[in-house]
Amino acid sequence: MGVGLGAELVVAAGTLAEFVPPATRGKWVSLLAIIINSGLFAALAAGYWIIPNLGWRYMFAIAGVGALVVWFLRHRMPESPRWLESTGKLEEAEATLSAIEREVQARVGSLPAVQRVVDLNVGNVPLRTLFAPGMRGRTCVAALTAIGVNIGLYGFIAWLPTFFVSEGLSIVKSLGFVLLMSIGSPVGGLVGYLIADRVGRAKGIVYAALISIVLGWIYVTLRDPVHIVIVGFCLVTSIYTITTLGLFGYIPELFPTEVRLRGTGVAGTCGRAASIATPYLALVLYQHVGVSGVIAMVSVVFALLCVAILILRVETSRHALEDVAPGTSDIAALGETIHTTKQPAQSA
Q1: Domains of the chain
Q2: What's the whole-model pTM score?
Q3: I need a labelling partner for 184 at 20 to 30 A (CA). Which of 31, 143, 158, 348 fits?
């Protein structure tokens, strides 16, 4: 199950980025994040009643039904024309893109003439390309982004019920507290939707990480339940904003088409490795230092992420994927004026 879920996130985020134009790509990947992030709230809402009354096994049954639905829907999805062309499958790429164009043309009428053609046919490239000069910095930042997201999710949010129970709350009340705070997960996706194409992915991640650090240290000083829920909600929102902008937007956009899913997969593997180690480290820190130790761990990782992004100086917002590729990323440096009239790259 874990293998399937891990692969699903990589494929979903990387594939969607290759289908939508630069001007609105941030909004589309944020909509994907809102749907995915809502799963936390939906699962907690269901678990609030199902686990005490029916048992935890029914939660897995619900997820299994959802997986079957996705399996049937998957068969209707076209393959990415960008990826098909990059691997030399030119006829299949042309047929797929033509089918998409016919579908759009039937809805909106005649399509404008193609203003730009980019040749993506590079054939098969080895995995070591991810660690070549000009690419290794992107791979490291992508991996650190995934690590930061997973440590935030599994080092803090996943431990919230344990924190509350250790403070004397029953498991039902603990789940109730977490349920209220978890509303921040879809709200984080909504924040990403609002800022992804305006502020930018790189800047947005940095801002959200800094806010998370500040809120985290405020959170550990609180004792009033109302204040805990309010600040906790804001903290969960900011962490899920990082998840939205980083996991679903920034990471796939950092890599060129021919290694996009592999690069996203390598970053995801690093993130998942961190999620394996984080609960053990969080437990040790919690037992010896308390919640502040866990917040310190998350804060250090978020601070390192901010530094890495500022050093890389690559902004992907509102730029065609081909323009963000290594060797052309100088136009996407942080702080540079974004030309909103640029047309999306057409590849086939």
Answers
A1: 2-332 (1.20.1250.20)
A2: 0.82
A3: 143
Q: To which residue do tokens 């040749």 refer?
A: 119
Q: d(Cα 98, Cα 164) in Å, to the nearest integer? A: 55
Calculate mean pLDDT across residues 248-262. 91
Query: Per-residue pLDDT for 78 more than 80?
Result: yes
Do 232 and 219 touch, CB atoms closer than 8 A? yes
Q: Which residues pair with 346 in a beta bridge?
A: 117
| Burial of 260 (C-beta count, 10 Å sphere; 0-12/13-18/19+) | buried
The string of pLDDT tens digits covering residues 116-159 is 788 887 777 888 889 998 899 999 999 999 999 999 888 777 77
pLDDT at 336 over 80: no
Q: Does the CA dihedral 108-109-114-117 come out positive or negative?
A: positive
Q: Contact at 8 Å (CB) between 140 and 131?
A: no
pLDDT in tens, 300-311: 999 999 999 999
pLDDT band for position 237 (50/70/90)? Answer: very high
Distance, CA of 134 to CA of 152 (rounded, Å): 28
Considering only CA atoms, which of 316, 341, 323, 330 is closest in space to residue 25? 316
Q: What is the pLDDT of residues 213-235, one digit of tens each?
A: 999 899 888 777 788 888 889 99
Instruction: Convert the chain into a string of H (helix), E (strand) and C (coil).
Output: CHHHHHHHHHHHHHHHHCCCCHHHHHHHHHHHHHHHHHHHHHHHHHHHHHHHHCCCHHHHHHHHHHHHHHHHHHCCCCCCHHHHHHCCCHHHHHHHHHHHHHHHHHHHCCCCCCCCECCCCCCCCCHHHHHCCCCHHHHHHHHHHHHHHHHHHHHCHHHHHHHHHHCCCCHHHHHHHHHHHHCHHHHHHHHHHHHCCCCCHHHHHHHHHHHHHHHHHHHCCCCCHHHHHHHHHHHHHHHHHHHHHHHHHHHHHCCCHHHHHHHHHHHHHHHHHHHHHHHHHHHHHHHHCCHHHHHHHHHHHHHHHHHHHHHHCCCCCCCCHHHHCCCCHHHHCCCCCCCCCCCCCECC
